[in-house]
Amino acid sequence: MHIDWTNGTKEMVGFTSSLRGNFQRHTALLGAAVTGLLLVTQPAQAGGVFVIAMENHNLTQPNPASNPQQILGNPAAPYLNSLMTPGNPNAAQSSYAIRYFNGGVGGHPSEPNYVWAEAGTDFGVHTDADPRDANGNTSYDRSNHLTAQFTAAGISWKNYQEDVQLSLSATNSASGTNGPVNPYYGTTQFNYAVKHNPMAFFADTAVENVFPLSQLFLDLSANTVGKYNWITPNQFDDAHSALNGGFTYLGTHYTGDQASIAQGDNFLSQVIPQIMASPAYKDNGAIIIWWDETEGGDDTNHTIPEIVISPLAKGNAYASSVVMSHSSDVKTMEEIFGLSFLNNPIPTNEISPTGVGFNNVATVNDLSDLFIHNVVPQVPSVSVTPGVQVHIPFSHDVFQIVLIKNNGNTTIPSPIFLALDNLSSNGSLANADGVTSVLAPLGSPYIEVGDDDNDRDDVLRPHQTKVVILKFEDSTHAPITYDTRVLPVVPAP
Q: Which domain holds residue 28?
C-alpha cells in the first residue's frame, strides 16, 4: 500500500486579489512584524508516535465470555469500548482494526510478539525468559531492528517502562508487594517484566533510552518526547495479571481476569487523555494501542485489538476490515520515518493465520486504512510561529503573519493547511478557506498554505519557511487567541 499525503485531496481557492490589496496598504506594519519574528522565534518540536502495549486479550472470539473474555463489548472495559463506539466523544479521533491477527501461527508466549514488534519476526524463539545467552534470546541481529534504524537515521526514540526503576536493570524482571503506591491502582504491588520490553532483547538498545513511566509525563509537558515512543505498563496496568484482592473500577468490584481488564482500561483512561493534550500529539501525532497475542487460537476467528487515535485518523470509531498484523505496525513506522523495510527471516512454520503467506514487512498491509484518505500520519518537523497582531485603526480588521517552517530534511508535499483550533470568540478568520469537517476537532477555520511570489509551488522544502497572512474581524481590540494545527490533507470534503 503506497503512502501519499496528496492521495484523495482537491484544489483549494487561495487568497483573493482584494485581500492582497489590503496587505499592500499595510506593508510597513506587517514587514515590521515579520522582522521581529525572524529575530526571536525558535522552532518547536514536531509530533510523534506513541505505542502503548497491552496484554493477552482478543478483540473478538467465538465465545465472547470464555476466559479470558474478549475486549469488544466487555463491561470491564468501558473506556476501550468508548473508543470503538461511533458517536461517542472519545471516538472522535479513533479508528480500529477488526481483522488484526497474530504475527504468525505459534507466535507465543508474549515475548516473541514483542520481539516481532521490533524486528518483524520472532526469529523462531518462543520463550518468556529474561534476555540471557543461556535462554537463546540474545543472539538477534543487533542492527536489523526498528530502533536501531531510528538511531542510525538520527530519529529520536524513547522506551518508557512502568516499574523499571524498581529492577536491577532494564534486562532484569522485578516484582513484589513493597513498592511505592501505584498512582493507577493504589497499592504497593509492582511488576516489571522484561518480556514486555522489546528493545531489551537487542544488545545495542537493551539499556538505551529506557525510562520509568513517570518520565513520560515530564517529557510530554516539556515537549521532549521522542518521535517514536514505546510505552509498556506494568503487568497489572497492561491487563496481564489481576491484583491481589481484585480491583474496583467505577463502582464495580472485579476479580480474576475481569479485574485484569478493568485495571488496563483504568490505566488507558488516565494516560491517553494526557498524551492527547500534549503538543507532540496535537502536531499530527498518533497513539497506537497494541496487544501482543491472541488467546485460544491462532485462526481468523480470534482477532487482536488494534486501536489508533490521531488527528488524522478516520475517526468516529471507523472499523477497518483490512488484514493486519504486527508486521503492519513495523511497516507503518518505516513508512512514516522513511526507513527501509526490515527483512529478517520469518520461520517457515509460522505462516500467517490468513493463509495468504508470510507476514513479511515489505508485503504486508500497513495501517493506512485507519487514517483519512488512507494516509499514514507523517511526523514532519514543522514549526508554527505566530507574529504580532496588527489592529488597523478605524476598522475591525486585524492582520497577523504566521511563519510555517519545515525543519526536517524531506519535502512536505502540497496541499498543506493551517487550522486554528479553539479560536477565541472575539475574532473570526475573514480569509478562511473553510472549516474542518473531517479532522477533529471539527468546526475550526483553516487556510491553505499557498504559494508566494518567490516560490511558485505549494510544497514545503527542507528548511523552507512559508508565510501565511491571517485576516481577522474583531471589534474588541483584545488579543485573539487560538491553537494551531498543520494538516497535510484537505480538512473538509
A: 17-44+380-487
